[in-house]
Amino acid sequence: MGFPLLFVIILILVWVVALLYYGCSVPSSQLLGPALVRGMAGKGRVALTFDDGPTPPYTDQILDVLRKYGVTATFFVNGKQVDRYPDLLRRIQQEKHTIGNHTYHHIFLYLKTKGRMRQEIDRTQEAIERVTGLRPRIFRCPYGIRWFGLFSVLRERGMVAVQWSDTGFDWVRKNRPADIVRKTLKNLKDGSIILLHDGCGAKEPGEVDHSFTVEALPAIIEDVHRRGLRFVSIDEFLSP
């Protein structure tokens, strides 16, 4: 094999790997299927979302802050956490927040079969329905990672994939409350979907600390209000 041909093959492989990474891992990508990344601009709306819960004490603390400011949010919950802490999910529902599906075990979807993805989604739908009487129509992939076959599974269930446009990177341990606030607000605008966390995901509850997220939340809310924007649920972004 001559050097020029080998070079071309390497370039093609690099391109394929880069395209696969973009399609499966970049939150804004639409290559594998449609996902809501940002709401329609021009209506002065922002969506605040929390992943990986419900988990004590952080879900309760976040709900306390949201209630104090009269803010609506969306919680993408893991089924195993719902089974562990059904009363927390009841409180989320009672306080009029929106609930979304975030798989049962918070798994990476890379290389997962459609059957495994169906199992993760359906088991979570059943856990949520047992507590709330409702099945969510919105889904967020753990880590934002999608895989082939996911979107056909969602279509079968009438569900919509939701990603995000802004995040405070509150899962990074070195980020203190001021860092979370700054990073959340850095590029925030009308239509933004904010990602923060209230739960443990694939870890055990005692292995995570979202106290900095709780501390950062009032400053985020107050800044958004100063900009003349209002918080809405993801459902409002999906409405015509």
Task: Explain how this protein is built.
The chain has helices at 3-25, 58-69, 79-84, 86-94, 114-132, 150-156, 177-185, 211-226, 234-238, and strands at 35-36, 45-53, 74-77, 98-101, 138-139, 160-162, 166-167, 193-197, 230-232. With 240 residues, the protein is of the alpha/beta class. It has two domains: 1-31; 34-238, Glycoside hydrolase/deacetylase (TIM Barrel), CATH 3.20.20.370. It is globular, with a radius of gyration of 19 Å.
H/E topology pattern: HEEHEHHEHEHEEHEHEH
- The rounded distance between the terminal residues' Cα atoms is 57 Å
Q: What best-fitting shape do the alpha-carbon axes yield?
A: globular
Named CATH architecture of the largest domain: Alpha-Beta Barrel
How much helicity do the residues have?
A: 40-55%
Keyword list:
three-stranded parallel sheet, six-stranded parallel sheet, single chain, 9 helices, 9 strands, globular, TIM Barrel, 2 domains, 240 residues, alpha/beta
In short:
The chain is α/β, with parallel strands linked by helices. It has nine helices and nine strands.
Give the topology.
Elements: H1 3-25, E1 35-36, E2 45-53, H2 58-69, E3 74-77, H3 79-84, H4 86-94, E4 98-101, H5 114-132, E5 138-139, H6 150-156, E6 160-162, E7 166-167, H7 177-185, E8 193-197, H8 211-226, E9 230-232, H9 234-238
Parallel strand pairs: 1-6, 2-3, 2-8, 2-9, 3-4, 5-6, 7-8
Helix pairs in contact: 2-8, 7-8
